[in-house]
């Protein structure tokens, strides 16, 4: 097949992969002068007319998907007895190979990054009414920049719907199949969620939850057996990630995440707060075993017989009653004497041997050595529980303590602490000549974000990055912003539509200065954006637009009133370092930080209450003066 030219366009250069369904070739597209991947179906698939019909329908549907984490399908064709699919060429390795190369569990941050990208791809497909049905590490590619690309969307449905049985392919897929798939029941998007759960389990432990000698034995285990909790295999796995995996792997679809967005919300909460926990039990799917109830008539008869026997025994008088009574009285007098002397002795020595109670001091934002000395002075001990990056707390100083300041404990108690690893710096990646959609994922993997984006005429294809600030190799803090200049192509008479949601009307207009593009406020709506900001745009980001175009936008009225909840938070001034402190409270929601309270309070107040209004699950960061005091999780749910 090497050197063959399909449709007078795709020249097969080298074979790069082989599976139970198809062979994959790297090819050169002579029309667009680019490399592509050509997947050629094996002959047994071509012989099934029902499969061919389903395959054509599903592959064309999948070709409509457009997402940075999905391998794009460019073309579907047939030449003679060769049926093929032309796809985006990915220079990388499969997730399966990446796991095998590690030879152990992946790092938790890597698991979350990969899982979020796979979930994002599934979310896009599910919203377009496409279920993958064959999510497994073999179908997931990873580029050298850590970008995940999910392959074979739509194709799996055609295969699973056909009458063809291919043992090797089935054996490879059954390890990741949901119970309803192996049972042959109705499946929906929740089946993909189960398969993603298996992939996450494999990344978290380095092994599959169920193994067997045959596809049937593995399928039966999916139906009947508990998984071994991943935390028992990988002790470094956080409780939060373990719980997410467990919920995704519920055997009953009704007990799983009901859509991929629910899973992404939990993953995002865990990414923002590594100590986040979720309570999901492994055995929720299993019914309690059937139990035999006792025969109450027989129990009643037995009870009556026992009472009669007891009554007869009671009526019998013991022999030598008088002599035993005297012995009993002597023993009783002795016991009473021992008790009296014991009480007197306990009262005398109580003060000497009792454990004193002490108050837990505030050791947050204090060096570990100073905290240890302070706790020891109070008869308490310290233990390092974990380490965490902090852009606020100095390296080696305490971020959190297990017991609240002011708590009364017995002497000798151990306080567990979280210690700062200092600021987390990251090196800016090289984004030049990359597509902006890919750059966004590369930056997300580095926990960086895209800032200002300017479009200009350039010889690079539309959507490719011309320049970046800061430059590649620069070290900046996690969460830093990268500004980009992006090519809009060589023509000055067409532009790429930017993202203008979240901007003010004036800021959005400035993006089109000198381009003869108009903005029309179509309506005002409630949204997650602050009041007066643009909530939506009629033309999606990345669309080609021309001079004279009018973009309809909606303007935000703010968060819907019914979603807002107000909660009181009480703070104690005894932890002030100064007599008067400037109090600042930040709210962190969906990765966005904003100040919700600022005010001065005096130490003499003793305590004060601040009412915070928000919605959903958030984190409050509290500062006393310029110093970070603590983080508080908040659930603003009615």
Account of the 3D structure:
- The chain is of the alpha+beta class.
- It has five domains: 84 residues, 2-Layer Sandwich (Phosphorylase Kinase, domain 1); 192 residues, Orthogonal Bundle (Transferase(Phosphotransferase), domain 1); 64 residues, 2-Layer Sandwich (Trypsin Inhibitor V, Chain A); 132 residues, Trypsin Inhibitor V, Chain A (2-Layer Sandwich), CATH 3.30.10.20; 74 residues, Immunoglobulin-like, CATH 2.60.40.
- The protein contains 17 helices and 30 strands.
- Strand 29 and strand 30 form a beta hairpin.
- Helix 4 runs antiparallel to helix 12.
- It is globular.
- 27% of the residues are buried.
CATH class of the largest domain: Mainly Alpha
Helix content: 25-40%
CATH topology of the largest domain: Transferase(Phosphotransferase), domain 1
Shape: globular
**Distance linking N and C termini:** 64 Å
Q: Poorly predicted ranges (pLDDT <50, ≥5 residues)? A: 158-172, 286-307, 316-321
Radius of gyration: 34 Å
Describe the structure concisely for a colleague.
The chain is α+β, with helices and mostly antiparallel strands. It is built from 17 helices and 30 strands.
């Amino acid at each position: 097949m090497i050197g063959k030219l399909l449709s007078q366009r795709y020249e097969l250069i080298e074979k790069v992969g082989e599976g139970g369904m198809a062979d994959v070739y790297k090819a050169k597209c002579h029309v667009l002068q680019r490399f592509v991947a050509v997947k050629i179906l094996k002959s047994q698939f071509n012989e099934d007319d029902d499969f061919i019909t389903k395959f054509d329908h599903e592959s064309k549907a999948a070709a409509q998907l457009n997402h940075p984490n999905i391998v794009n399908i460019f073309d579907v064709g047939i030449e003679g007895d060769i049926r093929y699919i032309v796809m985006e060429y990915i220079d990388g390795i499969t997730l399966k190979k990446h796991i095998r190369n590690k030879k152990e569990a992946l790092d938790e941050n890597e698991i979350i990054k990969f899982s979020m990208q796979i979930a994002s791809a599934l979310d896009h497909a599910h919203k377009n009414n496409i279920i993958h049905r064959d999510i497994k590490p073999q179908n997931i590619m990873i580029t050298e920049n850590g970008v995940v690309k999910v392959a074979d969307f739509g194709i799996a449905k055609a295969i699973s719907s056909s009458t063809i049985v291919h043992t090797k392919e089935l054996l490879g897929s059954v390890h990741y199949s949901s119970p309803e798939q192996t049972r042959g029941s109705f499946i929906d998007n929740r089946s993909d969620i189960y398969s993603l759960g298996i992939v996450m389990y494999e990344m978290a432990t380095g092994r599959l939850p169920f193994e067997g000698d045959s596809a049937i034995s593995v399928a039966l285990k999916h139906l009947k057996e508990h998984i071994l909790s991943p935390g028992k295999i990988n002790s470094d796995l956080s409780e939060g990630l373990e719980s997410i995996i467990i919920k995704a792997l519920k055997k009953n679809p009704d007990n799983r995440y009901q859509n991929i967005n629910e899973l992404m919300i939990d993953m995002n909460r865990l990414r923002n707060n590594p100590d986040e926990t979720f309570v999901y039990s492994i055995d929720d799917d299993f019914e309690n075993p059937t139990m035999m109830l006792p025969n109450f008539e027989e129990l009643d008869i037995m009870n009556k017989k026992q009472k009669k026997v007891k009554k007869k025994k009671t009526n019998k008088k013991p022999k030598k009653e008088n002599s035993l009574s005297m012995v009993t009285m002597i023993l009783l007098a002795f016991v009473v004497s021992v008790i009296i002397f014991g009480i007197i002795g306990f009262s005398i020595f109580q003060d000497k041997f009792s454990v004193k109670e002490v108050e837990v001091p505030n050791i947050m934002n204090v060096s570990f050595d100073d905290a240890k000395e302070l706790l020891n002075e109070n008869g308490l001990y310290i233990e390092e529980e974990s380490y965490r990056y902090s852009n606020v707390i100095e390296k080696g100083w305490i971020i959190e303590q297990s017991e609240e300041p002011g708590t009364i404990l017995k002497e000798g108690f151990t306080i567990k602490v979280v210690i700062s690893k200092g600021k987390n710096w990251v090196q800016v990646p090289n984004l030049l000549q990359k597509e902006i959609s890919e750059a966004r994922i590369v930056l997300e993997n580095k926990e960086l974000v895209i800032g200002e984006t300017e479009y200009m005429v350039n010889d690079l294809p539309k959507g490719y990055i011309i320049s970046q600030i800061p430059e590649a190799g620069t070290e900046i803090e996690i969460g830093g912003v990268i500004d980009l200049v992006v090519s809009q192509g060589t023509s000055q008479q067409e532009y790429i539509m930017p993202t203008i949601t979240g901007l003010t009307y004036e800021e959005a207009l400035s993006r089109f200065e000198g381009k003869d593009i108009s903005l029309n406020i179509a309506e005002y709506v409630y949204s997650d954006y602050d009041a007066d900001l643009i909530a939506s745009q009629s033309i999606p980001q990345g669309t080609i637009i021309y001079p004279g175009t009018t973009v309809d936008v909606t303007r935000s009225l703010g968060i819907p009133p019914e979603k807002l909840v107000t909660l009181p938070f009480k703070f104690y001034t005894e932890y002030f370092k100064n007599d008067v402190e400037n109090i600042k409270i930040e709210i962190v929601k969906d990765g966005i930080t904003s100040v919700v309270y600022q005010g001065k309070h005096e130490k003499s107040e003793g305590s004060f209450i601040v009412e915070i209004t928000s919605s959903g699950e958030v984190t409050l960061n509290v500062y006393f003066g310029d110093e970070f005091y603590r983080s508080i999780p908040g659930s603003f749910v009615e």
